[in-house]
Amino acid sequence: MPVWLREYSWRQTGSAVYVSLPLRGVRVTPANIFCTDQYLKVSIPPFLFEAILYAPIDDTNSTAKIGDGIIFFTLYKKEVAMWDSLTLANANKEKLQCIRENAVLKAHEKAKEETEAKKVTKQEHKKYALEATMKLEEAERKRIEDLKEKERQRVTKELELWKKQQKNAEEQKRLQKEGELHQEVEQLKEKKKEKMNKTRIPNEGTSKTRLKPTKGHGSYSMFSENLKEEQLPAPRSAATIKINFTSRVFPTALRESRIAEEEEWLRKQAEARRTVSADLSELEDLKEEEKDPDWLKDKGNKMFATGNYLAAVNAYNLAVRLNNKLPLLYLNRAACHLKLRNLHKAIEDSSKALELLTPPVPDNENARVKAYVRRGTAFCQLELYTEGLQDYEAALKIDPKNKTIEKDAEKIRHLIQGTVQDS
To answer: Which Gene Ontology terms cover its molecular function (predicted)?
Structure first.
């Protein structure tokens, strides 16, 4: 049975009611107090205080202070008026029970509304934090792009300056060669002139030449002499040269023959080597070696080895413009994009390389493994672990003995399991 607390004091004004409830020797917390617009309850087992208020109050702004064994309530009235008593008098049990039940229902509804409000507030805070994070990431991304653009402009300027210097050096060499050639021509002319002058001088020991009249105008001079014309060599005789090629030996055994696919791969490679972009109007200033995709690929590989990834990308870009059928150009450029964190471009170049590395034959196994691994790495760095695992498993099918790829695939599987458990 609860012990009812009857000792309390109260006073009022037109707008508020002040209630003082002594509770000596009892530890009180806010959880022991329950208040609605017409119901006040303090439950500290075995003690119990309950009051059905005379008129409704504003339970939202009303307060309760706990200290020195006393609970002091400040209850603000909804309507300004003077109460005849603190509690409702002459109320039967049914009405009291109804008021209690309504108070509990209102309390539940209020708690539910507060929970919903907290949830909405939390979502708003999350949304604000996400927007702030996105703005920071966007600013950081823009800063990095600006740095990349500045670096690209700097490298482009250096490349243009180097080209200009090379062009000037070539021009100087050409002028020097022309000067030397002109000098040699002049020397040859002088020698020929001297030789002709020698041949025109008559021998002192010769007898006098008898003058003979000639038909027509003029006559032979005693100093003139017919010079022999140079005899040109006869044209070469035509002939037919026969060339015999040895048969191509493929690595696969005849029982697993893939000769048709390997022949198709060789044919595609030969066509790709012959393919050169026809629109080279804006590349006329380049030297001959700079118009060679293989030379540009080797140049990009050297720049990649020294860590100059932006310059390597520029070299691969020019090579792709000259010949867009060579899969190794896209494969190497994907490696550069991975280093530069251009993950979407790395995925795009790896996919393009895989399109060109068809049909799958032993000659292009190594390139296909690299393409799958690089695209899978880009997917994983974008937290697309499922797509990344698919590419790593495709690489393992081609090279099942590669322990490094197997370990990386196992790590991705653990990441996927951890992500599923967290969700």
So the answer is: nuclear estrogen receptor binding
